[in-house]
Amino acid sequence: MAGVGTAHLRALDDALLRVEHLLVEFPLRHGAKVNAVTDVSLDVLEGETLGLVGESGCGKSTTGRAIVQLPPPSAGSVRFDGKELTQLHGETLRNVRPRMQMIFQDPISSLNPRRRVADIVAEGLDIWRIGDRGARAAKVAEVLDAVGIDPKNARTRRPHEYSGGQCQRISIARAIVTEPKLIICDEPVSALDVSVQAQIINLLEEMKRRYNLTLIFIAHDLAVVKNVSDRVMVMYLGRACEVGPPDDLFAQPAHPYTAALLAAIPEPDPEKKPDPERVLGGEIPSPIDPPSGCRFRTRCPKAEPRCAVEVPEMREIRPAQFVACHFPLAPGEQLDFSAPGLRADGGADRGYAPDLEPVRWDPDTGPALPSEDDN
Amino acid sequence: MSVTHEFAEAPYEGPLLEVDDLRTSFDTQGGAVRSVDGVSFTLERGKTLGIVGESGSGKTVLSRSIMNLLPKRGTTRRGSVRFEGNEIVGLSDAEMRKFWGAQMAMVFQDPMTSLNPVMKIGNQLKESIREHLDVTKEYAGELAESLLASVRIPEPRQRLEEYPHQLSGGMRQRVCIAIALACGPKLLFADEPTTALDVTVQAQVLDLMRQQQDERFMAMVLITHDLGVVAGRTDNIAVMYAGRIVEQAPTDVLFRDMKMPYTEALLSSIPKLNERSHTKLNVIPGRPPDLINPPPGCKFAPRCTYVQERCLEEEPPLRAAPTPGHRFRCWFPVGTPEGADALARNRARGGAPEPSVGAGASVGTAAAQGASS
Q1: Do B338 and B198 share a structural domain?
Q2: Yes or no, beta carbons of A223 and B232 under 8 Å apart
Q3: What is the CATH number of the domain that holds B136?
Q4: Domain ranges, residue B167
Q5: Which pLDDT tens digit goes with each residue over A79-94?
Q6: Cβ separation of A163 and B372 shorter than 8 Å?
Q7: In sequence order, which residues have a C-beta less than 8 Å from that of residue A305 and are 6 or more positions away?
Q8: Residue B299: inside a domain, yes or no?
Q9: Cα atoms in the 13 Å half-sphere on the side-chain side of A94
Q10: pTM of the predicted protein model
């Protein structure tokens, strides 16, 4: 998957946020680097929710942070509300910040335990000196009330006096108090209990309508992402695999990795017995030395020699659904993941990491591919 | 004391595990927290029981209480736990050592904290093997290697010499499973074994546990908050709330014919893949009760959409449903005329929110009308 290209982006004028060729690398010793995000492009229209999904290490959180320039990306462009954020520094960048906010996974550790809740929520207003004291207090009370926290108690209480779900409500209040346009929610419900998770998801939907928010919703839970999103982007090992409207994307995944993710989700229905044959084997390769070509090829049952050489480009496979894959799935096609991916031994064993030898890349002869009779 | 020695000679015919009215409470400054409050169930050999519930429902304490893994100070443990007919409540740690690992073992949620970070994987495996089996060092080493291979860890021999931080999360959890399986326990407790793992890794680990369970004819108690995880992988499910089992049934019966409003609410609050995006989620209003001074009556009543006056005063017993093996705790069960009446009455007086779409009004702002799109 592991795709490049910008075919899935919409007209520049429509997008509140447009990210092109985003590259985030973290240097290591001896010239090595972690390829956290490689050539990812995305856009978000005003009022839209973009869901970013993928497993740990796929670069979804790094993408979210690079958008708010924390830290700034190594390369690429981030155009937010008509401004190129990667060109801004110091005060000019700071001036954009109140209009972009983040909500984090762990609500309790993202709130200062020593401060009163009302002060935590008011901090953004205080820093930006928005309104006089009375107006600020009124605004804090309004947003706290909107998220379902009693503003009167919040003036005296500290975060530990609230439950996890309530702390996440406070985080949401803190994010919306400066009237941002864009909120990046990084796994906002992953640390919460199922019943509380539903409350927070519904609250985010309500806040989005009430305050005209645009959301980027980062999560690993596909069912949650499907529920909240207008558009979903699936990521794998720092690259975008597939983009599309959630209902179509989940009904007819075109990327083998999307299909693998969907097949792995345990559904609350005893009729649907989990099928070990449909479970993706192996483990995610190291982002320090990612596979050449399509980064998913080492685990992909459809991989062919071309996948090791050529990075697939994003292309429209069905209306509004874009995929970066040389051999996308036909509608209804079932993948058998007991077939090994493109690895050196073509082993017969299920794809657990031992046999997941990355294909050796030789600068002169190209990748060392399995010979014909191995297949 | 001498209990364990009899196992091999006279195989016990009854259920593997019989838990009867187990109660566990912790003394705190505010009073005793009754984390497990009268739990009874039996588990047959080779079967899987799923225990589901929210945080604080007592599912973890229940499993540790059964295994006698809780601290002795400040903990009160009453009731009966019989393992192959032998009472194990009241045994000392020294006596429990014959059960731990050899008869019953546990896999925890976070593999990084349950493995020793400064001890090689191989030594952690061998430690358990040599504690329970009378084998040489060399044989223990070979056994450790084959155990790692059986949980599909690549290059097991090299891995024995590695430390936990050198492995990925999924790999570490496989090591934990290998350690738990090392002495061939008859019963495995898996406490949120995949919650810290990614979905594809979760599926691998759950498949592995299923396969090992089949090979060893081992019983398993799978504890999770995820109804999806238990749906396809258990024979029986017990739903816990406020330290009690509020509903227990064979897995297919539970999903087809749930009687307890809490089970229904839990299931309807999770987003499902087969629903369209922006489907409004049902919300369970409020929070679980205080376990120091739980309210009288049904513990779920304050959050229940079916609640009637009787529920607030009188706690329903765990009674049998028409389907064999199905028990629940409710005066106005889901899918019965009484339940429908209760719901209709609540709707008429506008007192309690209704569970269908458009509900959740009682939590103020949580009642978003998210059904757009």
Answers
A1: no
A2: no
A3: 3.40.50.300
A4: 3-234
A5: 999 899 999 999 999 9
A6: no
A7: A342, A367, A369
A8: yes
A9: 5
A10: 0.83
